[in-house]
Design a protein that fits this description.
This protein is α+β, with helices and mostly antiparallel strands and 125 residues long. The chain has two domains: 67 residues, no CATH class; 40 residues, no CATH class. Helix content is 34%, strand content 20%. The protein contains two helices and six strands, in the order ββββαββα. The longest helix is centred in the middle third of the chain and has 30 residues. The radius of gyration is 32 Å and the shape is rod-shaped. The termini are far apart.
């Protein structure tokens, strides 16, 4: 009896795979599946077996690269906020690098407030 497994693993080598749910690349030229009682060769084509091996190697390489990118993304921040959290930055989160006569702090919010106060029209009576 074959279980309709929706995932299949690839096994390559001369010894039997560890489970019955593998696509077995036997001697690098036969493709075998378990039919419920024995391993049956369904393709005996060295070129096809080599293509499957090449694809498997490329998938493994891509998986390792995705892992590196994923780790970098999960640890990346903007102004100490994780990018993965999709932060909305406001003026409290943005610092300025210049100072002057009226701009004395690194916080944009406080500097804008100070400028607004300085630009406020004074009415004298």
């Amino acid at each position: 009896m074959i279980i309709n497994n929706k995932q299949i693993n690839i096994w390559r080598g001369d010894s039997d795979p560890p489970t019955l749910f593998h696509l077995w690349i036997y001697n690098d030229l036969e493709l075998r599946l378990y039919n419920g009682t024995e391993w049956v060769t369904f393709i005996d084509n060295a070129d096809l077996a080599q293509q499957i091996i090449a694809i498997t190697e490329k998938v493994n390489l891509l998986n390792s690269k995705v892992s590196v990118i994923d780790e970098a993304f999960n640890n990346s921040t903007v102004n100490h906020k994780f990018i993965k959290d999709n932060p909305v930055l406001n003026t409290d989160d943005i610092n300025n690098t210049q100072s002057g006569n009226f701009i004395t702090t690194n916080n944009i919010t406080s500097n804008l407030s100070k400028i607004d106060t300085l630009l406020d029209t004074q009415i004298l009576e």
